[in-house]
Amino acid sequence: MAAKRLPDTPEIRERWGSFAWTKDNAAEARKVVDRYPPGRQQSAVIPLLDLAQRQIGAETNTQGWLPIPVIEYVAAFLDMPKIRAYEVATFYTMFNLVPVGRHHVQVCGTTPCMLRGSDDVLAACYVRGMKKGHTTGDGLFTLTEVECLGVCANAPMVQINDENYEDLTFDSMTAILDALAAGQAPKPGPQVERQTSAPEGGPTTLQAMVKENHDYRGEW
Amino acid sequence: MPKLKVDGVEIEVPQGATVLQACELAGKEIPRFCYHERLAIAGNCRMCLVEVKPGPPKPQASCALPAADNQEIFTMTPMVKKAREGVMEFLLINHPLDCPICDQGGECDLQDQSIAYGKGHSRYDENKRAVTEKYMGPVVKTVMTRCIQCTRCIRFMDQVAGVEDLGAIGRGEDMEITSYLEHALGSELSGNVIDLCPVGALTSKPYTFEARPWELRKVPAIDVTDGVGTNIRLDVRGRDVMRALPRINEDVNEEWAHDKTRYVVDGLTRGRLDRPWLRENSKLRQATWEEAFAKIAEIAAEAKDSVAAVAGDLVDVETMYAAKQLLAALGSTLIEGRQTGLAYDASNLAAVNFNTTIAGIETADAILLVGTNPRWEASLVNTRIRKAVLAGAKVFAIGPEVDLTYKVQWLGDDLSLLHKLPKDATDAFKDAQRPAVIVGGAAIKTPAGQAASLALVKTLDLIRDGWNGFNVLHTVAARTGGLMLGYAQDGGMASLAQKAPKLLFLLGADEADLAPFAKSFKVYLGHHGDKGAHAADVILPGAAYSEKHGIHVNLEGRVQYSEKAVDAPGDAREDWSILRALSDVLGQRLPFDSFGELRARLFADHPEFAEPGLVPFVWAPPKIDAPKIGKGTEVAYPIKDFYLTNPIARASATLQRCSAELLHGQDFAEAAE
Prior knowledge:
The structure holds two protein chains of two kinds. Helices cover 37% and strands 10% of the residues of chain A. Chain A is of the alpha/beta class. Chain A folds into two domains: 10-91, no CATH class; 103-190, Glutaredoxin, CATH 3.40.30. A five-stranded mixed sheet of chain A has the order 2-1-3-4-5, with helices on one face. By secondary structure, chain B is of the alpha/beta class. Helix content of chain B is 27%, strand content 18%. Chain B has a seven-stranded mixed sheet with strand order 14-13-26-25-24-15-16, sandwiched between helices. Chain A binds chain B through residues 2-3, 8, 68, 81-84, 86-87, 90-91, and chain B through 164-171, 174, 179-181.
């Protein structure tokens, strides 16, 4: 699905035309640029676009987005043509080119998650009034269906803001959304009894290793 | 020098050649879309797949694979054939089948190659992707659904034009080529992306739905919109020149042409002088040739030898020669071509020539621009300088700061800097192996400026073995040819005005300040109703550059022959024949009755015009006694509006719009679509 983009309107220019780094972010931006050899400062475009998006997120109490004047600000900061920064911003789906809500719910709908029940996860979102590609009326949630996020072993999963929530069911997804709506921070990672992507309910192999170190060599 | 085998034939290719180039050297045709000789390799269309041994057992993209010793390349195996068919099928997944309504139809790489290398039938029932049109300015029309994303246009703007306005946004199937936020392309070379586009995604806006390539007669000609002498091909249907496209000439324009070259042709049908006019009671009225000639004869009888001629910017050598002969017959040598009032010493042509040559300037390693904006005065010299810069050359410039598309160290706009260049510049020139100075019209306006420029030859050591780094950049097509014929008076137009000629011939001269000639009887011989015609007492309708054979000498002294594409409109005639007919009426019959005889005379008098190619001018700079340039002498570039520098361009609707939109910021974007 083509990422939606907001056009270049006078209103957006008016609102974001005066964008500039905050004091902390200015220092951070310098630090990032300094990682690259002189004359290669353009390489910093991805981290700086992300930094700008986060700054806007902090300013608007959302997950942030990249209005065109801000992309231009970053391009000017790195002394590169505007179109080159714009290409980068449109290429990576992690850059939001439309405003998003307080929490950006990115549900993986690719095959492994779909087979393991991503439809239930989406259903939990729909129950809360979310719609794919839209922000809820209270500005709390933006729902996006995304392609594989590489957590197939813990399917189905969802990425909300900077955290992954894995091994979801309708109920656990509802609980997470409830917690977020209540302003709490739910526990990221697997939502079932499981350590990262290890087997559910404890190890199925090398069980002797669970309590103490065990030398298996004699048993080979 | 790797040695390899292409389809069993052993060849040796230059170091660094690609497999694709090796195949071409072996005479094999390799289909391609994204690969272009003058652009960086992208390797994204995959059409150039060949089989290479040793290597992985799969076809490889030959454009991006370096040729190596002992390679065996196969270009006609079943694997290659199948691979090409597969690639072609992928390219056509989303390409619309709208060839019958596509302007590229008949000259389309995709069309040709799908016939030659494609499957011949389609297996797709699915819907095709559609992409919205993008606005790219007054000359480029887009139908982006046709785009196969070869990125040639992006690479051209980035690498050759140096104006990074185009990019690919989005990813995967949603990737789209667009100008930044759909602003107009801000390059005077933007028309070249139309030629580069292998499909019909980028086509020419003024030429939209005008003609089909197979209806057109193609005539080789020489462009007259600037001094470069771009080799062009005029495509003609019936009486109309439909478009101008560049021809390849490695020494002059490579394969580019700027937008003025391309779109000046639509001025050829507007504002034309197609019948003689005569001024009576200070108003112009239509007249016959006889009336016009009789009037001139009447004046000429009075004027005796008080006759002068001013040659315009677009005229060919033959016209200037015929006029010079006519004036000589009348007893006058008052001829001048530098109509804007330049009066530099032209006694030695090498001293006012682009000696490094256009192709040579790209090998320079230190360049000083003096009072010139090459981007506007000679765009295709500017691309060469840009190439030199990309290869590491340092460029310094004296003049007001403008964007030249490459890094320039601006020294300031005080011409007196010539006497004492800053240390940065002198240091760079000291280390340079191939130093070059390019002097513009703004710098040689005064004798002091010319003397100081010529002095740089010594101080910067510009002339070495096989290298002459002193260049004067002329901005108009007729200049070097005119200087060779002697169209240069000491003192220029001012001295001509002082002589107060009773009869003044204006050979398409539209840029001259005619106020000092208020008392002269002015005969305008030209093709457009512009400034010269407005001031004239008699107007004789002549032929534009597309309507006559002509010799043009470009700014580096290269003689080039242009051919006639169409007839002049109405009663207009070829200029030389008008002068010949007039000479008869004046009782001084010129000794040629045909164009062939004229050329024979010309070649006898000036053998340097007889052969196309560079004229070897002997370096013998004049000694100019001039005071030092005063401190604070500001430099102003001669061209104020790139798109409207000559009468044909001023009559062209396309170039008027280019000027309004690109230079004066008028907004056409919404009205356009």
